[in-house]
Specification:
Blueprint lengths: L7 H12 L6 E7 L10 E2 L3 H10 L4 H9 L5 H7 L7 E4 L5 E2 L6 E6 H6 L1 H24 L5 E3 L8 H14 L3 E2 L2 H7 L9 H6 L3 H11 L5 E3 L5 H17 L8 E4 L4 H14 L6 E4 L5 H9 L6 E4 L1 H4 L10 E9 L2 E4 L16 E7 L5 E8 L8 E5 L7 E5 L2 E4 L2 E5 L2 E2 L6 H13 L17 E2 L1 H12 L18 H4 L1
Parallel strand pairs: 6-7, 6-11, 8-9, 9-10, 10-11, 15-21
Antiparallel strand pairs: 1-5, 1-12, 2-4, 3-5, 3-19, 12-13, 14-15, 14-18, 16-17, 19-20
Length: 492
């Protein structure tokens, strides 16, 4: 990723910070999102590995500075300041593949203000795209109810990076393979594919096309049967190739793919025709503008489908293509103390949660997810008995016992150095599945899922209320209370 991938106002603000002599003061920013895609009850966070790689190598080169100089917007002393700049701060984040909820501080950056500001755009770009595609692909995989899903979206993705990285995110979400060959090369993931309609069209007859493919791939022969007429031509010719070409070689037809028409009806008829011909193990593969709702409908209709190829609706997250993660200032450092900051909006959902924070995740005695609580960074882990306050109805409270707690965020960068080992793609994919096993089935429904309520700790609630409704004579942007300040000298 280009190190100058930043919105221009990050640079103009940067010069203003520099001129104000505050650019080296530490600041704390959170990345979070406000709404789950497609009406879901949760999202799957992803992109941390890319963010780590970016921050580790981030700098502005002489060529970058020469371009900025040509704009005649920046002073020479500021350009000197940012040439060869590096990230020297800290980063905390949930691990890739973690189930997360709206308004949780999924990533926290603490760094000199200028550094933290200039990396904002790139970090959001990576987090938003990876989390969006992983969340969408997970919905599709869950709809398939254990049947393999293959990612087929390369040609419909918005550019090369979206195609290659989207294939990786699909595998992390549970897809079994991708048609994107370079993704297989780059990430060591499984690549899949057989033929297109053009292959069938090239030969004089559909039978001849199927025959030539069977001769080329006798051990893995799957045929695309809908080029002309699925039931009158495609399936009969596939059966004929099985009997006349593969069977004499001691081989058998591995599968057929249907890419158009009434997929439920055609798959049922195709299955019956293959079965009656004695081909009982051939898989039925379905493609053609599939998404989680189409897949769920097909299976509800009893379609005997063995696997799905999903393209454009996965790789573009077509139904809800914007993840909406944001990057907000939540604290600044003065005299080795963190001063909480809050953004107040006429839209209540845009009012931020102030201060340097952590996320406590609560599980019951069976390891099932109860809820998350967003807390101040210096709060101790809850033990014994704990009371939650409903985030929308504070008069409703819930007390729990017999629970375990996990501090969800991990410190990944310290003083500019990566201290976290990035898991393999396979391990991240396993983490996704392990996370899903902790959620109620009702929360994983595609339509009208159960929604978890994520609480603020009592201390964070008190701080937020003080900043919102406390001393009216003070500017809410700088109002704070000593009891919520963190001594940075100890942490550093």
């Amino acid at each position: 990723m280009n190190n100058l991938l930043t919105d221009f106002y990050e640079l103009t603000m940067g010069q203003a910070y520099f001129k104000s002599k505050v650019s080296n003061n530490n600041a704390v920013f959170d990345i979070f999102f406000r709404k789950c895609p497609d009406g879901g009850s949760f999202a799957i966070a992803n992109g941390m590995a890319d963010i780590l790689e970016y921050l580790k190598n981030w700098t502005l080169t002489k060529e970058d500075i020469d371009y900025l100089k040509s704009l005649n917007q920046f002073t020479p002393d500021f350009l000197d300041e940012i040439e060869n700049i590096k990230f020297t701060g800290d980063m905390w984040a949930v691990e890739d593949g973690t189930v997360v909820f709206p308004n949780e501080p999924v990533v926290t950056i603490k760094a000199p203000l200028l550094e933290a500001q200039l990396v904002e755009t790139a970090l959001l770009n990576m987090f938003n795209h990876s989390s969006l595609i992983t969340t969408k692909a997970s919905r599709i995989v869950r709809a398939a109810k254990g049947r393999p899903v293959m990612e087929f979206g390369t040609r419909r993705a918005q550019g090369e990076n979206a195609a290659v990285q989207g294939a990786r995110e699909a595998i992390i979400a549970g897809c079994k393979g991708t048609a994107c060959t370079v993704a297989g090369k780059n990430y060591g993931i499984k690549v899949l594919g057989t033929m297109a309609h053009s292959f069938v069209q090239y030969f004089d007859t559909e039978y001849e096309a199927f025959k030539q493919y069977a001769l080329a791939f006798p051990d893995d022969c799957s045929l695309l049967v809908d080029t002309y007429n699925t039931l009158k031509s495609g399936i009969p010719n596939a059966i004929r190739v099985h009997n006349e070409v593969l069977k004499p070689m001691g081989k058998s037809l591995k599968g057929i793919r249907i890419d158009s028409g009434d997929l439920a009806y055609l798959s049922k008829q195709a299955k019956a025709m293959l079965y009656n011909a004695g081909i009982k193990d051939a898989k039925i593969i379905i493609s053609n503008a599939l998404d989680e709702k189409v897949i769920e409908s097909l299976l509800d209709q009893g379609a005997p489908i063995d696997s799905f190829g999903v393209g454009e609706n996965l790789i573009t997250a077509k139904s809800d293509p914007v993840f909406g993660g944001v990057y907000k200032l939540v604290a600044i450092e003065k005299e080795h103390k963190l001063i909480p900051k809050i953004k107040i909006s006429d839209n209540p959902e845009k009012t931020t949660n102030p201060a340097f924070k952590k996320i406590f995740r609560f599980y019951d005695e069976n390891g099932m997810f109860i809820t998350d609580e967003i807390a101040l960074f210096n709060e101790t882990t809850p033990m014994g008995k704990h009371e939650f306050v409903h985030p929308e109805m504070p008069f409703r409270k819930k007390e729990i016992t017999n629970f375990t707690v996990k501090d969800l965020k991990v410190k990944m960068i310290e003083n500019g150095k990566q201290i976290y080992t990035v898991p393999t793609i396979a391990n991240t994919a396993k983490h996704v599945q392990d996370e899903l096993k902790t959620l109620w089935e009702e929360a994983q429904r595609l339509e009208n899922p159960h929604k978890y309520y994520i609480s603020l700790s009592k201390k964070l609630t008190a701080l937020k209320n003080e900043m919102l409704f406390g001393n009216k004579e003070k500017d809410n942007q700088t109002n704070h209370h000593d009891s919520f300040q963190t001594n940075l000298t100890k942490e550093r």
